[in-house]
Specification:
The protein has 196 residues and is mainly α. Helices cover 67% and strands 0% of the residues. It contains six helices and no strands. α3 crosses α5. The longest helix is centred in the middle third of the chain and has 82 residues.
Length: 196
C-alpha cells in the first residue's frame, strides 16, 4: 500500500521559503522554531569557520611552543657539539700517530712472520692461512702469526723434530729408507708429543 501523502494545510501553502507568510509577516510562535535549509547551511558554515579559526590558533600556539623548546634544546645541543669537537680534536693526533706507527711496523712484522714461515716445510705452509700478493709479500701476517704455533707443531709431527729458525726441514715418511737411529728417535719424540 503506498504511503499516503501528507496533507498540507492552508497555513503551509501560504508561506514563502523564508518562513514568512505571503503577507510578509513572521509566523506565530510555533512556526518561529522552524528553520529553512538555507538557515541551517549558514549556521553550519559559520560553525565550520569558527572551528577552523580555533584549530589555526591552536596550531600557531603549538608551533610557537615547539619553536621555543627547540631553541632551548639547541643550546644544549650546541654544548654537546662543542664537547664532542673538543674530544675529537684531542683524539685525532693520537689516531694519526697510531696510523703512522702501524704503517711503519706492519711491513717489519710481515717480514718477521714470513721468515718464520720459511723455517716450516712447504707442505705445512700450504696448509696454513698464509696469503701472498703478486710480489710474494705476505698479506695477512696477523692471521699467520696466530696460526704459527699450530704450524710448528704440525711440522714437528711430520718431521719428528722441532722446527729451527733458518733450518730447512725436509719431511719424510716414517719407515722410508734412511738412518734407523734417526727414525727411532723420531718415533720416540712423536710418542712423547702424543702423550703430552
Amino acid at each position: 500500500m503506498p504511503d499516503p501523502k501528507p496533507e498540507t494545510t492552508s497555513e503551509e501553502t501560504d508561506k514563502t521559503p523564508e518562513g514568512k507568510d505571503k503577507a510578509g509577516t513572521q509566523p506565530k510562535s510555533e512556526d518561529a522554531l522552524k528553520f529553512t535549509q538555507a538557515d541551517l547551511d549558514r549556521v553550519a558554515a559559520k560553525t565550520r569557520e569558527e572551528e577552523k579559526e580555533k584549530a589555526r590558533k591552536a596550531k600557531e600556539k603549538e608551533d610557537a611552543a615547539r619553536a621555543e623548546a627547540e631553541a632551548k634544546e639547541q643550546g644544549k645541543f650546541q654544548q654537546l657539539a662543542e664537547a664532542r669537537q673538543k674530544e675529537l680534536d684531542e683524539i685525532t693526533p693520537k689516531l694519526e700517530a697510531a696510523e703512522a706507527e702501524l704503517k711503519e711496523l706492519k711491513p717489519a712484522f710481515a717480514a718477521l712472520i714470513d721468515a718464520e714461515l720459511k723455517t716450516l716445510p712447504e707442505d705445512v705452509v700450504e696448509a696454513g692461512p698464509a696469503k701472498f700478493d703478486d710480489s710474494k709479500t705476505l698479506t695477512n701476517p696477523l692471521d699467520v702469526a696466530a696460526w704459527l704455533p699450530n704450524g710448528k707443531k704440525l711440522a714437528e709431527k711430520l718431521n719428528g723434530q722441532s722446527a729451527k729458525p733458518g733450518a730447512k726441514i725436509d719431511p719424510k715418511e716414517i719407515g722410508a729408507p734412511g738412518n734407523e737411529a734417526a727414525d727411532r728417535q723420531a718415533r720416540a719424540q712423536a710418542r712423547r708429543a702424543y702423550r703430552d
